[in-house]
Structure to design on (247 residues):
């Protein structure tokens, strides 16, 4: 069955990689001039002009430092932009009876990132403005009947831009290609709800060293002195639900 897929955030790292993966048929990734999610008029016009069956919502202000320094911009993009998409889809569902599948790319940053091994049922308590805006958007997305909220953290093994990483920061960070494959699976699966998608718990240093052997170890404390926001201690996730449905 062919499905018309709308991808938001096509110029970002994840969105651009989804486009270049060639895994998705009938994928439309409009320029911002055609679909700016912070403009309800453009959102309204785009959906009126196009038949959409699935939305992969990657568009976000994701730089933690920018979100920290410009919370108004983070709110406008991550929360209000998501609200405009959901509002229009709710209208379409009410008028036409269509059930548009909405796949929202969230973050492991909705968890407190202290003890690790967080399951989808654990308390959400972000420690960054970025995390709070993504969590707020999750609640908006949950108003849709056919939604999937993917909590994740990803990296590009071919482009690890730093020379050192912490031995005492842990996560379930997943390679970009594997996340894209997971998103493809989700578009074709009937699962609905919240799901953690990631790899096994490793320190940043352990993980990045697999792909960048010359990377140097450092401590969380050393890195924490260089950023205005709170760094995670252990953001690892329990991904057993994902492992169950994908195998």
């Amino acid at each position: 069955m062919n499905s018309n897929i709308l991808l938001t955030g096509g110029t970002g790292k994840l969105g651009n990689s989804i486009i270049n993966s060639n895994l998705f048929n009938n994928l439309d990734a409009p320029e911002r001039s055609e679909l700016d999610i912070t403009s309800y008029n453009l959102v309204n016009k785009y959906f009126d002009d196009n038949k959409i069956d699935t939305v992969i919502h990657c568009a976000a202000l994701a730089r933690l430092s920018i979100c920290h320094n410009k919370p108004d911009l983070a709110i406008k993009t991550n929360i209000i932009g998501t609200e405009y998409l959901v509002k229009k889809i709710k209208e379409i569902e009410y008028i036409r009876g269509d059930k548009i599948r909405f796949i929202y790319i969230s973050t492991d940053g909705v968890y407190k990132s202290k003890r690790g091994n967080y399951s989808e049922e654990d308390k959400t308590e972000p420690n960054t403005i970025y995390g709070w805006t993504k969590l707020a958007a999750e609640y908006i997305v949950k108003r849709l009947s056919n939604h999937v909220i993917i909590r994740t953290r990803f990296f590009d093994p071919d482009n690890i831009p730093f020379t050192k990483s912490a031995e005492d920061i842990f996560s379930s960070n997943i390679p970009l290609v594997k996340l894209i494959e997971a998103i493809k699976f989700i578009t074709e699966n009937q699962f609905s709800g919240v799901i953690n998608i990631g790899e096994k718990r490793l320190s940043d240093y352990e993980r990045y060293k697999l792909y960048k052997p010359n990377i140097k170890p450092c401590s969380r404390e050393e890195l924490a002195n260089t950023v205005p926001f709170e760094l995670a201690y252990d953001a690892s996730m329990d991904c057993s639900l994902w492992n169950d449905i994908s195998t």
Residues 5-159+173-199+235-246 form a domain with the Rossmann fold fold (CATH 3.40.50.720). The longest strand covers residues 101-105.
